[in-house]
Amino acid sequence: MPRYAQLVMGPAGSGKSTYCSTLIQHAEAINRSVQVVNLDPAAEHFDYPVMADIRELIMVDDVMEDESLRFGPNGGLVFCMEYFANNFDWLEESLGHVEDDYILFDCPGQIELYTHLPVMRQLVEQLQQWEFRVCGVFLVDSQFMVETFKFISGIMAALSAMVSLEIPTVNIMSKMDLLSPKAKKEIEKYLDPDMYSMMEDNSVTIRSKKFKKLTKAICGLIDDYSMVRFLPFDRTDEEGINIVLQHIDFSIQYGEDLEFKEPKEPEEEPDNTNYDDLFQDKVED
Fold first, then answer.
1. Is the dihedral of CA 20, 25, 29, 33 positive or negative?
2. Sheet strands (E) in the chain
3. N or C: less crowded end of the chain, CB within 10 Å?
4. pTM, two decimal places
5. Where in this protein does the record put region Disordered (predicted)?
């Protein structure tokens, strides 16, 4: 049977660890088994148990403190991920070989890992070789997306990850529970956006003709091909969490290979009648 995986991606501070924690709690509530693997060597803490932690293999702090390397934070993280790519056997041993696994991979937030480097693509290919069906989950902070140009920037970041990894991807606006009622109403237009209308609404603020032409071309690409759409994620809304999970499950065909078990028929009570005694009673009568 196949195994299932979510690659939880997004910029630093977009709520990836909170998403994993919320999904773990939701899975427990619906009696479903979900595990988490931490792939961020710079992570400090998280409030859920992990089945594997990359910091057992390598840590950013150790790399930065190495006098022979002299890396900064970003260079140190890239070094850690490339070291991880050369040691996938550690991950294979940590994951084991249990069938029907459903695992969340909490990934680092640096966008260059998805646009400039082959590390995450190599991870996807390796997981697929281990019979995982992989779905990308790209998170963007909803507080960042309340302006049109920031929204376009968020779409381009999500699109770059989709193109690079070539896997089914569900894009999510996280931290909806932190928005004010007014901001929630304002952000609804970004969940199913009309890019040309947004462009017209902000045409006054664009002074450069070249920039306006470029922005229009990007909006046309997004709108014409419907390549990126966002789902709202409110950690306090159980129904909303379930809708997000259903979209992801559908993209990786979760549950389609589970064997159907017919309900057991109630067993018939044994007939304890003693026919010899009944026959004897009839004779005596």
1. positive
2. 3-9, 35-38, 52-53, 102-106, 132-141, 169-174, 230-232
3. C
4. 0.84
5. 259-285
